[in-house]
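Subject: Sanity check before I submit

Could someone independently write out the structure tokens for this chain? I want to compare against mine line by line before I put it in a report. The sequence has 207 residues.
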Amino acid sequence: MTKPDGFNLLEDRLPEGSSGLVLDWLENDPVSVLISRPRQTKLGDYRPAIDGRPERVSINGNLHPVEFLITLAHEMAHVENYRQNGRRVKPHGKEWKAVFRNKLAQIIKAGFLDERYNSAIYDCFFRKERLATTMCSVLKRLIDNEKGRVSPLRVEDIPEGSIFLTGNGKKLVKGTKMRTRYKCREINTNRVYTVHPMAEIIEYRAP
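---
Independent answer below. Compare away.
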């Protein structure tokens, strides 16, 4: 199988042994994959072709290899779902869930990950019906332990109404949980952000 141009930049961020599976995904659904600077509010995204801009997937470049692979699976599921169903279905509806879980099942079946990760993937994504994020606390804590660091505080750990500081210097107030993210208001601008439950925080003050 011929590797597409620039695949080495992607391959360097993947778990060892996973490149063949990722090449299969890209062969079935060719799309540009961009390595993005770290973003506080998301790990990756998918944007269909619109207004002359090409279809593309972007993944944060600072992710742990397993986190990178799962995020890529999440976004490639969007690619496949969009091509099959267009805009007529919900982005994280039952059709997308089926595609994403199929890609995760392929990861587990391929056997290149440590069994701890396979078990965490199953616990995170196959034991509940609501499924819209690429990561969950089980996987995040496992990755933190592998890095040899104490798990940092995350948005899901603090009470609603807390004022917290993010890694990029934003001071936010934690609001209510929507479907999969928390609605948070920036103190200085009153701008509202939707923040991932597992986003790391530097410090916080409880209400």
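---
OP: Matches mine. For the report I'm noting this point. The beta strands are 32-36, 44-47, 56-60, 163-166, 171-177, 182-186, 192-195, 201-205.
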